[in-house]
Structure formats: structure tokens, C-alpha cells
Write a structure and sequence with these properties.
Helix 4 crosses helix 6. With 460 residues, the chain is an alpha/beta fold. 28% of the residues lie in helices and 23% in strands. It has 2 domains: 107 residues, Urease, subunit C, domain 1; 317 residues, Metal-dependent hydrolases (TIM Barrel, Alpha-Beta Barrel). The strands form 3 sheets. Strands 1, 2, 3, 4, 5, 16, 17, 18 and 19 form a 9-stranded mixed beta sheet that branches. The protein has an 8-stranded parallel beta sheet with strand order 6-8-9-10-11-12-13-14. The protein has a two-stranded parallel ribbon with strand order 7-15.
Length: 460
């Protein structure tokens, strides 16, 4: 019996990390069945004409925060709304976070998060924020293998809820390596950030415009250097999160050249925006950690991306609302984080590909293949290969437009990219062989996304 969900995408340009060529792509059920020229559509299959369109692997945004609860601030969003918005941006899979709250077991944290994520229309995996695992309980990490959440997140800052000291980080890195878990680490030197913030507060400089001064780039560089040293000692694979500084990425690349299993990520905010935004009329739009950097840093960061020193482009999406951001003109009391899933692919297409820093195969590598391989989603996801999930984006590279909050689908009510030009648009998004967005129209059913459990990976 022929699967009624067979789709023949005909005449598009297939994009892989290894190159681009004109070909047809056939899906059957949830999987990619074949790629080639002149493919024949099975009886009952839908034919989608894709001439002039790029056929990309579905974007894997490997660092997002949907329905975030930090214990201090909460985003008022939900998984249906944010996954719908992500679909309009070509995202088919996210890796979000399950937070272990004080006194909570790791399995309990994952199960609670899975219940929240059930309305999603895209697929999802989970990192686990390990915040309460005292000495002697390292073997609790085995629970994460059981539930398929095989990556954890640690922080060198954010007292008192997330911060871990060096001894704790080393202990957990060793345990994570033993169980085949990847460790993602937010790197900022807490003492430096605290001292600089206290100095600004004492001087009465707490308005939004001073936010960038509170968290200098060197605080990120130092913490990343230290974490790489600890990870080497622990023989643990590690990801250095959301690099805002090219120097951080270079440190990771050097560690990798010296034999470490080390990766890094950056986001459109650091490649496209800069700290002049804090002098604008609306600095509240740009409160995030790490903050935006000097204008020259954008070019340096693009240079290390182009040189292959950056492994993933992510968004660190966080949907605080405009009202939450505007509540008080005080960076110490404003929640940090920016919405970005829906705009990421067009922004990278415009300011990365169109500007000549990277090519489309690099997009497929940075936004799909590498995240899948680093976090154990491969060989199910991350590439246009027969047998893989049929996660596909049809992208028209020609239209020009402008980003506006009114045209987006998140709850935020604002975007840090307001008024920015973009080249190209997502025409359709297909998740496991089913359209989530079709010709610019949302068509997915609430709850049609799926949790993707992952196996341990032993890199060394």
C-alpha cells in the first residue's frame, strides 16, 4: 500500500555540507527515500515544484529556551506558540533545556519538561541543567542515559541558582564523560562580572545602556580558557556556549587542534548586532548574556566562522515580552535573552551567505549537520540523506524584505532585528515528511512534534 504522505520535491537545488546540485527529492512517510534527477513520483504522491528554490535540511537550533523558568524570571510563552514560530523560520528540531530545580531528581526534571513540551509541532531533544548534584551523587547522571537526555549544561556564573565552582565543574565533567554525555557550558568569569556590576551600581549606572559594560568580553575569554583546561584534565567532550568573542572560538579551535574534543557555537545576535545598540533610543531590546560586543568584533567573529573555527549557529532563543523588558530601566532587573528562532535562517542567509562570509553548504553544516552530530541526533537528523528523517526547508533566495515584529509569530511583541533587511524567505517547512508551514501558511497539528531520545556518545 502506497503511503499517502509521499512527497516528490522536483527541480530544486539540494544543499548539503559537501555541495549543491539540482535534483529531485522523494520522501516516503517520515523518511527521505531517494535523491536524484528525474525521479518518478509513486502513485498518490504529492508533487511539489521547487525550481528556483533551495532544498535545505531542516534547521536544528541546538540552544533554545522555550517556556523558561529561571527561578527569578519566567517567559510567558508556550511550546505550541514557539514551535509554530520556529516552523516559519525553517526550524524542524530544537534542543531545549530541562532545569533541575533544588531538591529535584534528574529524571523528574526531564519528565516535567517533556510534559510541558508535548504541544510542540516540531521535534525536540533536551539538555539538562544540572544544578543540584552534590559529591557522591555523580552516578545519578545514569538516569539521563535512561531517558535519552544525553547532554548537560553547567554555568560558571549566575549565583545563586546556576553557578558551579571549578571543583564542581571538574567533578561533573568527569562523570559526564564516564556516561557518554556531552557538556555545554556558559562561560563568563563570575567574579569579574560581579565586581564590574557592583562598580556600575555604586556609580548609579544601572540603566539599560550600561548593560554591556557589566560583562566584558575578557570575562568570557578567561572562563572559556579555564573550562577547556578543566575539560582536558577530565578527558571530557565540551561545548563552549554562545561565543560573543572571536577569541573564545579561537581558544576552542586551538584546543581541538591539540587533541581535545571541544566545540563552540555562536548566534546571529553576535554576528550581526553590536554594542552601539546600547546607545540607541531602545537599548532594552538588546539585554542578553553575554552582551553585544564592539562593532569590530562582528567581523572578527565572521572570520572565525568562515575559517571553520565555529561549529554551530544557534539562537539562544528566549521569548521574554516587550512588557517584561520595558518594566524598569535597570539592566540588573531586566530579564536577559532575545527571541530569534524565526529570523535566524534569513539573517544568516543575508549577512553570511549574501555578504560572502560563508556559502550555503556551510549553512547546512552549521545549522543542521554539526548540531546533529555533536548532540547525538545523527544519523536520524541533520542531513538530506536517504533513510534520514524528512526534515526539509524550501527556501527562496531571491525576495527581499524587512524584519518587523508585526510579521513574526512569537509572543515577544518585539525583535532585536526590527527594520533589518533580509534576502530570501522560507517558503515551506517539512518535519518528518509532513508540512508544518506550506507556502507561507501554518498547517501543522498541535502536539505533532516528537521527543527525540539520544544514545550516549563516547568521543575518547
Amino acid at each position: 500500500m502506497v503511503d499517502e504522505r509521499a512527497i516528490l520535491i522536483r527541480g530544486g537545488t539540494i544543499v548539503t555540507p559537501n555541495g549543491m546540485w539540482e535534483a529531485d527529492l522523494l520522501t516516503q512517510g517520515e523518511k527521505i527515500r531517494a535523491i536524484g534527477q528525474g525521479l518518478t513520483a509513486p502513485t498518490g504522491a504529492e508533487v511539489v515544484e521547487a525550481e528556483g528554490l533551495l532544498v535545505l535540511p531542516g534547521v536544528i537550533d541546538a540552544h533554545v529556551h522555550i517556556r523558561l523558568d529561571t527561578g527569578i524570571y519566567k517567559t510567558p510563552d508556550d511550546w505550541f506558540t514557539e514551535s509554530r514560530a520556529a516552523s516559519f523560520g525553517g526550524v524542524t528540531t530544537v534542543v531545549d533545556f530541562a532545569t533541575q530545580f533544588k531538591g529535584q531528581g534528574l529524571r523528574e526534571a526531564v519528565e516535567a519538561r517533556l510534559e510541558e513540551a508535548a504541544p510542540s509541532v516540531i521535534d525536540y531533544a533536551l539538555h539538562v541543567m544540572v544544578t543540584d548534584l552534590p559529591p557522591g551523587r555523580e552516578d545519578d547522571l545514569a538516569e539521563l542515559v535512561d531517558v535519552g537526555a544525553t547532554s548537560i549544561k553547567l554555568y560558571t556564573t549566575y549565583r545563586p541558582n546556576y553557578y558551579a565552582d571549578d571543583a564542581t565543574i571538574l567533578r561533573l565533567l568527569r562523570a559526564a564523560a564516564r556516561y557518554g554525555l556531552m557538556t555545554l557550558i556558559h562561560c563568563e568569569n563570575d567574579a569579574m562580572v560581579t565586581a564590574q556590576t557592583e562598580a556600575l551600581v555604586e556609580a548609579g549606572k544601572t540603566a539599560w545602556r550600561y548593560h554591556g559594560q557589566a560583562r566584558p568580553a575578557f570575562a568570557e575569554n578567561e572562563a572559556a580558557h579555564r573550562i577547556l583546561f578543566l575539560a582536558e584534565e577530565a578527558r571530557a567532550p565540551v561545548v563552549i556556549a554562545h561565543n560573543s568573542s572571536a577569541r573564545t572560538s579561537a581558544l576552542v579551535a586551538e584546543a581541538r587542534e591539540n587533541g581535545q574534543v571541544a566545540f563552540c557555537e555562536t548566534g546571529p545576535q553576535y554576528l550581526i548586532l553590536d554594542n552601539r545598540a546600547y546607545e540607541s533610543a531602545e537599548p532594552w531590546r538588546y539585554i542578553l548574556q553575554p552582551p553585544l560586543r564592539d562593532p569590530q568584533e562582528k567581523e572578527r567573529l565572521w572570520e572565525v566562522v568562515a575559517a571553520g573555527m565555529v561549529d554551530m549557529i544557534i539562537t539562544d532563543h528566549c521569548d521574554y515580552t516587550k512588557a517584561q523588558k520595558l518594566a524598569v530601566d535597570d539592566f540588573t532587573r531586566t530579564p536577559g535573552g532575545l527571541p530569534g528562532m524565526e529570523t535566524s535562517l534569513p539573517l544568516i542567509a543575508t549577512y553570511g551567505v549574501e555578504e560572502g562570509w560563508i556559502d550555503w553548504p556551510d549553512v547546512a553544516r552549521l545549522m543542521a549537520a554539526n548540531p546533529a552530530q555533536i548532540y547525538g541526533l545523527w544519523p536520524q537528523k541533520g542531513a538530506l540523506i536517504p533513510g534520514f528523517d524528512a526534515d526539509i526547508v524550501l527556501y527562496d533566495p531571491e525576495p527581499e524584505g524587512v524584519i518587523t515584529a508585526d510579521a513574526l509569530h512569537t509572543l515577544a511583541g518585539y525583535t532585536p532585528y526590527e527594520g533589518m533587511r533580509v534576502k530570501g524567505r522560507v517558503v515551506s517547512t517539512i518535519r518528518r515528511g509532513a508540512f508544518t508551514v506550506r507556502d507561507g501558511r501554518f498547517v501543522a497539528e498541535e502536539g505533532s512534534g516528537r521527543y527525540i531520545p539520544r544514545d550516549p556518545q563516547f568521543w575518547t
